């Protein structure tokens, strides 16, 4: 598996594949995936890949029937490469950490779209137990949840343009604060999960179905 940031072509391929196999309950684009992976790396426990990969697709019944072994292997390798790159920046180069927000163009003007990333982050939070988060850290989580929970849509619609922009700028620093908080806790795991580039026929399928690879995504 390669190391370092994904290039634009690789990110676009991931985006297309998420859309190809996505559904109403799945992660639908690479911005949402980036948010989910950031939360998984930032939380109090290490979540096993089979758990979050299943959640990524919206549950076991939605796990893709890959068109080929090559497609599945490339998806796994790029996803874990991106996850490790996020982990490196969070841990060793926080000044280089930036959420992978989306963009849209409207009336000739480009707008930042933070909601997908924040929904992905909150999806990752839901896979762990954040109930012991210190009270002084809850505003940081609230800064992300503001854009990442459906019940806050009306609140966002009522904000002034300036307040909305300020709330967007707060997301990245909030994510860093939450990562650093959980890393400072004694029970926080120290090593990011990495992917193996090859899967044996009789190994558990990396999609998280619980079946052997030969009986699941290989075909």
From TrEMBL:
Pfam families (alphabetical): SEC-C, UPF0149
Xref: InterPro entries: SEC_C_motif (IPR004027), YgfB-like (IPR011978), YgfB-like_sf (IPR036255)
PANTHER family assigned: METAL-BINDING PROTEIN (PTHR33747:SF9), UPF0225 PROTEIN SCO1677 (PTHR33747)
Name by which UniProt lists this protein: Preprotein translocase subunit SecA
Organism of provenance: Franconibacter pulveris
Taxonomic lineage: Bacteria, Pseudomonadati, Pseudomonadota, Gammaproteobacteria, Enterobacterales
């Amino acid at each position: 598996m390669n190391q370092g940031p994904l290039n634009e072509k690789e990110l676009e391929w991931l985006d297309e594949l998420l859309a190809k196999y996505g559904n109403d309950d799945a992660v639908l684009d690479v911005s949402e995936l980036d948010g989910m992976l950031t939360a998984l790396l930032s939380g109090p426990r290490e979540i096993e890949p089979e758990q979050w990969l299943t959640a990524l697709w919206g549950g076991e019944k939605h796990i893709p029937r890959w068109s080929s072994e090559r497609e599945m292997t490339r998806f796994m390798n790029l996803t874990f490469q991106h996850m490790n790159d996020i982990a490196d920046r969070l841990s060793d180069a926080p000044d280089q950490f930036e959420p992978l927000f989306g963009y849209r163009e409207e009336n000739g003007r480009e707008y930042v779209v933070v909601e997908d990333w924040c929904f992905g982050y909150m999806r990752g939070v839901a896979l762990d137990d954040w109930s012991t988060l210190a009270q002084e850290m809850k505003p940081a989580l609230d800064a992300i949840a503001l854009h990442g929970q459906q019940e806050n849509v009306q609140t966002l619609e009522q904000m002034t343009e300036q307040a909305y922009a300020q709330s967007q700028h707060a997301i990245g620093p909030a994510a860093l604060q939450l990562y650093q908080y959980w890393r400072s806790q004694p029970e926080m795991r120290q090593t990011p999960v990495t992917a193996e580039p090859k899967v044996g026929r009789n190994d558990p399928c990396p999609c998280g179905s619980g079946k052997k690879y030969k009986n699941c995504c290989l075909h």
